[in-house]
Design brief:
3-stranded antiparallel β-sheet; alpha+beta; 3 strands
């Protein structure tokens, strides 16, 4: 059986540190470098930076579905998932209509 791997805690940040490169750090200040990629690959950088939040939201949704979570728990988790998706695609806001009423 394999041991589960751990990753640096969220949030991760996309920062242009050098000419032509984007760096993904685990802190806005002098954090650890997660990855460095070409600046022309902004979408990839945002997706990578959102990975911990996407994973957490997916894990929580699976847990809620398996345990028959309440409507409020599911809505709250869906809002977190939408925020993570928005961050992954480089959007600075949630899609129109979110959060749902009552969340």
């Amino acid at each position: 059986m394999t041991t589960p791997q751990t990753h640096s805690a969220a949030p991760w940040y996309v920062i242009p540190l050098s000419e032509g490169e984007l760096t993904i750090l685990d802190s806005e200040d002098e954090g650890h470098i997660i990855a460095t990629i070409d600046s022309g690959r902004n979408a990839d950088a945002f997706l990578m930076a959102a990975a911990p939040e996407l994973l957490a939201a997916c894990q929580r949704l699976v847990q809620l579905v398996q345990s028959s979570g309440t409507v409020v728990e599911i809505n709250t988790t869906l809002v977190a998932a939408h925020r993570a998706v928005a961050r992954a695609i480089g959007a600075d806001q949630l899609p129109q209509g979110f959060p749902p009423r009552g969340a």
